[in-house]
Write a structure and sequence with these properties.
The chain is globular and about 60 Å long. Helix content is 46%, strand content 14%. Strands 3-4-5-6-7-8 form a six-stranded parallel sheet. Strands 1-2 form a two-stranded antiparallel ribbon.
Length: 329
């Protein structure tokens, strides 16, 4: 959860917080329809400390000093946080939690370009600097969000959409004729650990790393010290379910993309519940262990209309309530 349709942060905040009150998890929406700087990459890049970016024909590029694109991204984020404060402040009983999201250091390095036009992922020093810069910048981000929703428990989702390709060495070079060398798993763990430590120091109560299900590096995520994993469930293999079961038994959190939001019609509540409950029982996990689970859409909602996105959240709460009934026996 994060990407949201439309360009109006006030409308987005009212819908999200209206549908996802406690015990659900409202989130600070990303509105990519607003254009440059409101996309996931630009939004995270504007958090970087002592590094700046701008937009070139081939995408976001690291530069020596902030320009209009960097300022536009920072301004959009500031607006969203201010709107969140206004909406939450007007609520009689604000939700107990709020979630923010940012792009992880490996996918950030895959998406940002150096002066040469090549991806930052190609250079070990650039990868290290990006992870450290992101870690240095997230504290101010969480401080601003915490001030907008006083007393709320902060959850953070680190998105790594490109991680399988990063670890497999299949990200193309700028020319497209070659691929970039695979990033070692140990380096990925260290990059995550640096950011995780910074987020916790800044007050994050829960930090999960979100990855696509194909070749998802669950073991590396857990070894880095994340509190949990966020993953769609549609293509999970038996082996992956076993890994997730082990994570739950180790007191980790599991955010499951159990609601396919990509079709013309929403799936039935019972079907979504069964998609979680059936493998859960087959693995011998108890109903009470479902307390470790949050259900999410299987993808972002930016391609929907605001009304359709609202319907997805409504259906999602029904699925969550159904699983909660199973957890209670």
């Amino acid at each position: 959860m994060g990407p949201w349709p439309g360009e109006d942060p006030l409308e987005a905040a009212k819908i999200i917080r209206g549908e996802l009150g406690s015990p659900h998890l409202p989130f600070l929406a990303e509105l990519p329809d607003r254009g440059v700087g409101s996309d996931a990459l630009g939004r995270t890049a504007c958090l970087l400390e002592e590094l700046a970016v701008d937009v070139q024909p081939y995408g976001w590029r690291l530069v020596d000093r902030p320009g209009k694109d960097f300022r536009r991204a920072a301004s959009a984020l500031a607006t969203d946080i201010n709107v969140l404060a206004d909406v939450a402040g007007a609520e009689e009983k604000p939700a107990a939690d709020v979630k923010v999201q940012l792009m992880g250091p490996l996918s950030l390095a895959a998406g940002l370009h150096l002066h040469s036009g090549e991806r930052a992922l190609i250079d070990y020093g650039a990868r290290r600097d990006l992870a450290e810069s992101l870690a240095a910048g997230v504290g101010h981000y969480l401080t601003r969000v915490a001030a907008a929703v006083p007393g709320a428990r902060l959850a953070v989702q680190i998105d790594e959409p490109d991680i399988a390709s990063v670890l497999a060495g299949t990200i193309p070079t700028s020319s497209g004729y070659r691929t970039l060398r695979a990033v070692p798993a140990a380096e990925a763990r260290e990059a995550w650990r640096v950011v995780l430590d910074a987020l916790r120091s800044a007050g994050a109560a829960e930090v999960v790393i979100a990855v696509p299900e194909i070749e998802a590096p669950f073991e590396q995520i857990l070894a880095a010290g994340a509190d949990g994993i966020a993953v769609p469930l549609q293509a999970l293999t038996t082996r992956q379910w076993e890994q997730l079961a082990g994570a739950v038994e180790a007191d980790k959190r599991l955010w499951i993309g159990a609601l396919d939001a990509g079709g013309d019609t929403l799936p039935k509540v019972a079907d979504c519940i069964e998609a979680v409950w059936r493998p859960w029982r087959q693995l011998g996990l108890s109903g009470t262990a479902l307390s470790a689970v949050r259900v999410t859409p299987s993808r972002g909602l930016a391609g929907r209309t605001p009304a359709e996105a609202k319907a997805v959240l409504g259906r999602l709460t029904q699925v969550a309530d159904g699983l909660n009934q199973l957890a209670l026996g």
